[in-house]
């Protein structure tokens, strides 16, 4: 299983790729993709690291699992391909975007334009079997992505981490809050959003205000 990432990540992740656990993980993933339909496509498993170079990472959004439906997962958390119906969580993200920064509801569900501006859209688990949520959890992906979060925390400054929902909030222990900002809220899934834990968090405008206060360009959400 080939690891395709932007070259800027290599100095920070090369040692990770040479560990026994990561080699075992890649062997498991290769076997799964041979035997089963899995998502995202193999060439896009590391899309988050291709689209968002290390040094340009200004914001990190943490998801849990890729979408497991046909033609949805594209290697960026919460994102889907162009011309693909928006899953419920993404619809709620876009509704909050509308009310927060008065941006019209987007037609495209692809968040690639966020990634290219320095938003790392990182799922904790980067692969999944078709129609089997959480099927690739606890196979080593979480070790890898936790180490990615810790590396960003250690090697970068002034990154804004958006932790949505209980799972993502647990990652706060990996982040140095003396150097970085953490914004938390409920998850954008209907279950959480309909209970009032998502809408009104204003994370998009808050993130841009923080970035601008540090001298960075805001994200064109």
Automatic annotation (TrEMBL):
<dbReference type="InterPro" id="IPR018085">
    <property type="entry name" value="Ura-DNA_Glyclase_AS"/>
</dbReference>
<dbReference type="Pfam" id="PF03167">
    <property type="entry name" value="UDG"/>
</dbReference>
<keyword id="KW-0963">Cytoplasm</keyword>
<keyword id="KW-0234">DNA repair</keyword>
<feature type="domain" description="Uracil-DNA glycosylase-like">
    <location>
        <begin position="50"/>
        <end position="211"/>
    </location>
</feature>
<dbReference type="GO" id="GO:0004844">
    <property type="term" value="F:uracil DNA N-glycosylase activity"/>
</dbReference>
<dbReference type="GO" id="GO:0005737">
    <property type="term" value="C:cytoplasm"/>
</dbReference>
<dbReference type="InterPro" id="IPR036895">
    <property type="entry name" value="Uracil-DNA_glycosylase-like_sf"/>
</dbReference>
<keyword id="KW-0378">Hydrolase</keyword>
<comment type="function">
    <text>Excises uracil residues from the DNA which can arise as a result of misincorporation of dUMP residues by DNA polymerase or due to deamination of cytosine.</text>
</comment>
<dbReference type="InterPro" id="IPR005122">
    <property type="entry name" value="Uracil-DNA_glycosylase-like"/>
</dbReference>
<keyword id="KW-0227">DNA damage</keyword>
<dbReference type="InterPro" id="IPR002043">
    <property type="entry name" value="UDG_fam1"/>
</dbReference>
<keyword id="KW-0326">Glycosidase</keyword>
<feature type="active site" description="Proton acceptor">
    <location>
        <position position="65"/>
    </location>
</feature>
<comment type="similarity">
    <text>Belongs to the uracil-DNA glycosylase (UDG) superfamily. UNG family.</text>
</comment>
<protein>
    <recommendedName>
        <fullName>Uracil-DNA glycosylase</fullName>
        <ecNumber>3.2.2.27</ecNumber>
    </recommendedName>
</protein>
<dbReference type="GO" id="GO:0097510">
    <property type="term" value="P:base-excision repair, AP site formation via deaminated base removal"/>
</dbReference>
